[in-house]
Amino acid sequence: MIQTYAVTMVDAEETNRRIQEQFSRSGENYVKSRVHSNTNDLEFCISMIEPKSEWNVLDVATGTGHLGHTLAAHVQTVVGFDLTQKMLDIADREASKKGLTNFTVRQGDVHELPFGDSVFDLVTVRIAPHHFSDIKKAVAEMARVLRKGGRLFIEDTIAPSEKSQAELFNRIEWLRDTSHVRDLSFNEWKLLLEQSGLKVMRAEMKEKEWPLRWWTERMNTPEDNVEKVLDLLEDNHMDLNADLRIVRDESQEGLDRWTIYPNNGYFLAEKI
Known about the structure:
This protein is of the alpha/beta class. About 40% of the residues lie in helices and about 25% in strands. It has helices at about 5-10, 10-25, 40-50, 65-70, 85-95, 135-145, 165-175, 185-195, 210-215, 225-240, and strands spanning about 55-60, 75-80, 105, 120-125, 145-160, 200-205, 210, 245-250, 260, 265-270. Helix 3 (about 40-50) crosses helix 4 (about 65-70). It is globular.
């Protein structure tokens, strides 16, 4: 039994306020974000999902629409769903530029999806669940709107498996972006999906590269928080390296000294 869900359930109203504030401010950065727009990663997602032309898809936390737009070329319809209207406006604009007529947007909260039961063939959420104030409820909602036999695809940053390292990594994540709630470990994700009435069909991890300067500048991290991140890395990087690769370049200073190589988890599950 996972013992950490209570930690994940934070004040929903405050979390949502921070998300909307953060992503309204930094939304345009996501159009060309090296993480979110990465063609190789998007192609890997599509190969793992194996979308069907007759599917109706819900892309939760669509952001500026990278995965939703990519899926639209393979399926019947895609609804891009997000808490932040500014992100949806950008996603809609970019879809129009691409000539996508089967991509629509809708605003709302993943914890209370405004859709009936069993209406989608596929629900996706990419690099976003770490923002959800109640991850167990969010997964339950995504499972609810899936038809029986439908699929849930999740990609997100993976926390180290050791508890103290996971807490430290999540502390660094929160300092960099205060709308962050919690990264789960690889095994926590698999267990959560199974406990939500889903059968894990495939689960993989891939290493990513986060140069610290790029990672903080993309989110406009306040200078005070940047200094705290630097201090935490300086004091703890050897401990984190046990389960998370961190490179310290002695020829550089400050932000340019550090590169973090976290793992992203990819999960494909079927509603049973």
